[in-house]
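Subject: for your reference before the review

Hello V.,

The reviewers asked for a structural picture of the protein, and I figured it would be easier to keep everything in one thread rather than splitting it across files. Below is the amino acid sequence we used in the manuscript, unchanged from the supplementary table.
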Amino acid sequence: MLKGEQGANAKKYEASLQAKEAGCDSASGFFRESSQDEGRHARILQGLLDRYFS
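And here is what came back from the structure prediction:
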C-alpha cells in the first residue's frame, strides 16, 4: 500500500510537469494537488508503519 501511494505521487507529479509543458495549467494544477495528496498519504502510512511495526 505504501509503495502504491509513493508510486502514485511520482506519476502524478510527472503528469503535472507534462501538463505544464503542454500549456494546460488547469490539468497541471490538478495533478500537482493530487500528487501532494498522495505524498501526504504516503507519509501518514509510513508513520503508522513505523509506530506499530518497528
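For the response letter, the relevant points are probably these. The chain has one domain: 2-53. Helices lie at 2-21, 25-53.

Happy to draft the paragraph if you're swamped.

O.
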